Amino acid sequence: MDLVPALEEPLKKVLGPATAKVMAEHLGLHSVGDLLHHYPRRYEERGQLTHLADLPMDEHVTVVAQVADARLHSFASAKAPRGKGQRLEVTITDGSGRLQLVFFGSGVHKPHKELLPGTRAMFAGKVSVFNRRLQLAHPAYELLRGEEEDPVETWAGALIPIYPATAKLESWKIGKAIQTVLPSAQEAVDPLPDSLREGRGLVSLPEALLKIHRPHTKADIEGARDRLKWDEAFVLQVALARRRHADAQLPAVPRRPRPDGILTAFDDRLPFTLTEGQQKVSKEIFDDLAREHPMHRLLQGEVGSGKTMVALRAMLTVVDAGGQAAMLAPTEVLAQQHHRSIVEMMGELAEGGMLGGADRATKVVLLTGSMGAAARRQALLDLVTGEAGLVIGTHALIEDKVQFHDLGLVVVDEQHRFGVEQRDALRGKGKQPPHLLVMTATPIPRTVAMTVFGDLETSVLDQLPAGRSPIASHVVPAADKPHFLSRAWERVREEVGNGHQAYVVCPRIGDDADEPGDPKKKKSPEDEAEKRPPLAVLDVADQLAKGPLQGLGVEVLHGRMHPDDKDAVMRRFAAGDTGVLVATTVIEVGVNVPNATAMVIMDADRFGVSQLHQLRGRVGRGSAAGLCLLVTEMPEASAARQRLNAVAATLDGFELSRIDLEQRREGDVLGQAQSGTRSSLRMLTVIDDEEIIAEAREEAAALVAADPDLTRLPGLSTALAALLDEEREQYLDKG
Predict the structure, then answer these.
(1) Residue 592: enclosing H or E segment and its boundaries?
(2) Cβ–Cβ < 8 Å for 225, 213
(3) Dihedral angle over CA of 39, 41, 46, 50, nearest 10
(4) N or C end of the chain: which has fewer CB within 10 A?
(5) Running DSSP on this structure, what letter comes out for residue 165?
(6) Are 60 and 140 in contact (CB under 8 A)?
(7) Is the distance from CB of 459 to CB of 318 less than 8 angstroms?
(8) 484-487: which pairs have CB atoms within 8 A and are 24 or more residues apart?
(9) pTM for this structure?
(10) How far apart are CA 23 and CA 35, in angstroms?
(11) Three-class secondary structure of residue 458 per DSSP
(12) pLDDT tens-digit readout, 40-59
């Protein structure tokens, strides 16, 4: 929502090409509007800023102080043997402490002229110790001159904005550039309706921009922040509300179950009763399917809560009503697994047109990119004739060649793996827009759901079906306590000895095609501390088969294997012929082997919280208890270990997703393309500003219902166009 017409002036015209280039390359700022929305990270008061007495060592600091004295010394050195070397020592004070600045060589001339006793300035540099005294060597500085309109007194008590800066552009240079463009803030077109702004006591947008960059009091900052948070929340929610509104205008074929149809026959076959949660969510879905507008529903469920069962019943309802249903899975392994388990659950009901098939049966087709030509031709024929009521597939379903007889429902498994174009391409295959059910096993906090999936109605499955076993999780600190790792392999042997099976998960494959890591990519401190590459499937499998797990039947599974080989490995593991499967995260979603009870995750610190939760959900799927061991070499005090402790401490995915969000902040969760132009959330934090997001959603829904085209709010239309530029149109559909 950053660019408004009056503020579209490119920065190179206003600030000159050199500064504009640094701002574009390092901060992603291109126009006057972008720069005005580059808010200060924090503010310093002069007295607070410069407790020179207790500056941190080896840190980059910004201080405001007054020059007490300045002395130029000559000295002899290897470079200046005749005593012509020059060193300028400047002592600065803030009344509470003193600090020495030092400049050498040709760098002394400018500061010698400018840093005269009594001069006040801002200094930035790294604190070091020389002769047991704190000093800044060659600091950057900015004089705080007492010009008429900006007397020293103003600075004395002023709140000094400290901006997110780079080594190439100090905070005060950014501040100076903002001073240059600040008058343009008066022309900012306000996206908030007057009634909303006045009703909530919010300042206008021009006033908020002035106050955020040049506050006189802390109340100015608070007022500006409140206002700018509302902008972000409201514009985003209006975008989502308009999509919901537009979707509700589309026609769809109502799909109602037949009393004596395939759904009834399927329910009669089930050897168990559905959980209350499954029944409640199924009812919500059936109500949506019966309407004349397309369903748009997000089904969130804990790992193993029975989402596939709910989705299958919805798909059978559509088959009852004469339509077809497609399930889109993110990987071939998962598509094959879904296909196999659905065919097993349906039994003779999946044998439509075949000898021995039930009267009300249909055909269940698999479609993946690696299928042989003959099987693929047959699958495509079954879809176009309507012979197949259900199809399970990967991205191959989206190709132009794939045509349906009457596509009534699209189920997308693991939403975060699919972008908007893929979702829309599949929806485009229906004669009228099909109903849409999106599933995810990554529980999403309510606010993230409102912010990211605001165009979908949400259903939550949070109870596990009867017969599911608890999973015990433990962190194994391999570096601190190597005997814990030996014990972990003993536990795996015990599980396999008792007739069960185990997974060992590694972050890397380990063949020559493995990416050694991009040398240009900046390493996190934890990567730096951990010099060795992540453990690899092929190496670990080899070591285990020859060592601690010898004789247990160890096999490998990873994404670069031929699909037929992958399928064969999964079949052997599911049949119980393999004791231990060493795999990458290819097993993360959907793999269902009830007899697998143990999982060891190597280098667990290399995985995200939700990924660990997903992986763990592969065990404890039968009647025997599950065990998940998180192996790490990270030290006890590290953030990575705290993250693993959090995963081990709870099986509640919603609680974990909240911890994950608090650690990672929004950037990752919202899938924001930081595309150089703008990022949607600068002031708003999804966890802390839950209330604003909820209120903005209500306001947005009411506004769009009354004026879907926003004819009376040109400022809001402009802000929306900026939020939803082409590059970022996908943003709303990424989870």
Answers:
(1) none
(2) no
(3) -150
(4) C
(5) -
(6) no
(7) no
(8) 485/631, 486/548
(9) 0.67
(10) 9
(11) strand
(12) 888 876 544 446 666 766 66
